[in-house]
Every structure is written in structure tokens, then in C-alpha cells.
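During the reporting period the student researcher (J.K.) took over the structure-prediction task from the postdoctoral fellow and processed the backlog of single-chain submissions. One of the processed entries is reproduced below for the supervisory committee.
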Amino acid sequence: VDRVLFAIAALGGVLMAGIRFARKVNPPAWVAMLHGLLAASGLTLLAYALCTQSLGDAHGTASIALVLFLVAAAGGAVMSLAYKWKQRLLPAWLVVVHATAAVLGFLVLLFAAFAIA
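J.K. obtained the following C-alpha cells:
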């Protein structure tokens, strides 16, 4: 379930990055809020799974994914509170760092999921 939430959130992230880089404006607030809600839900489920389930060898890999998602979440919070809330254009470098951490986290999570199977 968490992988599905992250995948849907990723689609929203791609849409928002496209708006930011193509139009040079911030994406609509409702898209950003939906993106954050889905990503935070996935993050919560991942943390819950790490705390309650025995994942065997994949536990360490899934923990790395969690850390990467937490870095992405921190970047998203900064973008929302320090830039979007104040109606300032999101800095391109922060969008790229946020996206990089999230994509790496998703890839590591997929690796962990296939290691479990």
C-alpha cells in the first residue's frame, strides 16, 4: 500500500515540477497539499511497517528508504512554509534536491520490497 501511495504522490510531484520549470510559477496549492498528504500517508505506513513487522534482510534497506523519504519530506515542508506560503517562487535547486531524495527513496523501497518477496 505504501508503494502505491508513493507512486501516486510521485505523479503529482512530476506534475508540480513540470509546472514550476515550464511556467516559472508555483504549482497550485491543492496539488501540493494532495501530494504532501499522499506522501505523508505512505511515510507513516512505511514507518509503521518498520516498527511492527519483521522484514528480515530488507529491514536495513527499508530503513534507508525511510530516511530518504524523511529528507524529501523536510524539503517539501521547507518549500511549503518558507516559499509557497509566502508566495515566493520555489528555488529550482530545492525542487531538485526534494525530487532526488524522493526518487532515491522510492527506488530503495522497491528494492527492499522485492528482497522480501
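The committee noted the following: The helical segments are 2-23, 29-52, 58-84, 92-116.
J.K. will present the remaining backlog at the next meeting.
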